[in-house]
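hiii, so i know i said id send this last week but things got crazy w the move. better late than never?? heres the sequnce for the chain we talked about at the cafe, plus the structure i predicted for it. fair warning i was half asleep when i ran it
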Amino acid sequence: VGGIIAGACLLLLVLQAAVKPAYMGWVAAARPQLAGAGAEEAFRLFTGDLLRLLLLVAGLYGAAILALKRSAPAWVLLVAVALAASLELNYLIKDNNLINPTPPQQMQNYLQADDVVQFLQQQPKPFRIFPLTQGRNPDWYMPHQIESIVGYTGAKPRLYQEAVDALSYNNPNFLRLMNATYFISDQPIHHEDFEEVFVGRQERVYRFKQAFPRAFLTNEVITVAPAQALEYYKSPGFNFARVATIETPLSGAPQADATGQVTWVKHDPDNLELIVETTGPMFLVVTDNYYPSGWKAAINGAPTSITKTNFMFRGILVPAGKSRVTMTFEPLSAGKGNIFKCISLLLLIAAGLATMWLGRMRKAPASSRE
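okay and structure toks below
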């Protein structure tokens, strides 16, 4: 079996010049969007996969033959399998061209930061944008570390999708609370709520004056059902800057006349840190997606609960004075995964040692075993 696989790979590699026209024709028929440079890149990946498969087969089957013929200890095969699996998984994780192969230079040219991106990267974070330009993939800003309220992912947050379906991107309250600070447009925007802050070669950047900061303080909370929370978004008179909606009652209450300010220290995908200073208890609203499994919060190092706020965001009741608020993503699944990984590693080591011991026992003379 190993010889057949290795022979087929080797034959295709030797005859790749003859195989290429047929492969390119198949790609053109099956994936018309890959014609030209994309098909060339697909063939390059194909030949690279052939070479990698040839080397894997040679290493694995070679180690298996040596182990079966007892020319080498069995642990050699174990090491070969572990090494091959590690190399292959590392390749699959890093390779992002398996589905839509794109020439590297073409990808670099497409993703090259333009003047609008360079302007946005200089602005204080965190903030989100709302790109309105037609013809550009909304995920284009993601490699530039610029957060957008639109885009596509197969694993989208359910609460956010429900809010978009119920409210749409035309809802002013939704745009305010989403921290949509900058609108990107290839057409002029004439509205008193927008201030033109940058004019690029192809696009303009407008600051949405009514956008809420990513984190802010309120003096009142009301307990409502999820459907009612969405209805408040549709109410132009509802003041989200002062009142937050929650679904479960708090153990305390914010002070009606308290004032305060929020300063960001860190805003990473899995780790947030803020300094909150207030004259009395207040309710901190962080307009990042509420996700109950894994997010843990603390005030000055003491654990505290995160409350589902304004249908899809996070909220924390903070005390009077100066507080250091942190939120860290530590999902239980990651902890279990690390435990299983350690157990698997220990089992592999035990299996290798047991194999070596059994091999020595078989080779030892009968008298010595007695």
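btw The longest strand covers residues 260-268. thought thatd interest u
miss u guys!!
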